[in-house]
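Two proteins, back to back. First:
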Amino acid sequence: MATVDDIFNLLTAVNSTTLGRIESEIKAMNQTTLGRIESEILNIQSLLNAINQTTLGRMEGEINAINQTTLGRIEGEIKDIQAHVG
């Protein structure tokens, strides 16, 4: 007949084995999940970089157009002033 110590030792061994398996499963799930999250973050970063490049390109084009228009107006005003002065 099993003693209390035998039953305790058996339950301790079962618990250790079960906890070890659960820990291994959790680690495997965490690695998989972290890999997926990392992949999604990299995809988002690539998308944001593309958006930034597109936006900066558009802004640069708009700023150049504004500068050209403004410079053209200033040039016209200077020619008008020179015509009246000189």
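And the second protein:
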Amino acid sequence: MSNYFRLYRNIELSVIYYLETEFANNWSGVNVVKSFSKAYEKSLPVVCIRLGDISSFRKEIGSNSLREQPMLIIDIFANSDGQRLDLAAFIVDKLKSGFTYYEHAKDPSNPKQLTRTANGKVRVVNFISNRRLDFGENVDKHDKYRHIVVVTLEKL
């Protein structure tokens, strides 16, 4: 059995690593999390990365090889309406050019640590949604300035 994770998990971890790196180089204080519930445990602003539905298509007639296109859902929890818009625009700008796909594995000497090996590129196939989520005025501070960006991805 391989120590490497499978495609979907690797894509999700690659997105997280890419956006964490981009935020660290361009913003201060943006928390990037994988789990939706973790977003409410962090101080604002928070960007939550998760994979949703996965569409699979045959690469060619008669082949068992599939083109797999996972849906990436990015939830933005901001401090203000302006910050919400800026974060959404920044994320879309960074995703549109694609990013490095990494194969991740648990480090045998330290199972809590992951190793990362570049093995291709991920590109955005479709931008599905980029919109504000409005929950009204009397909501938790994390839900006051919410935004969602949804795209489909494909590993090249």
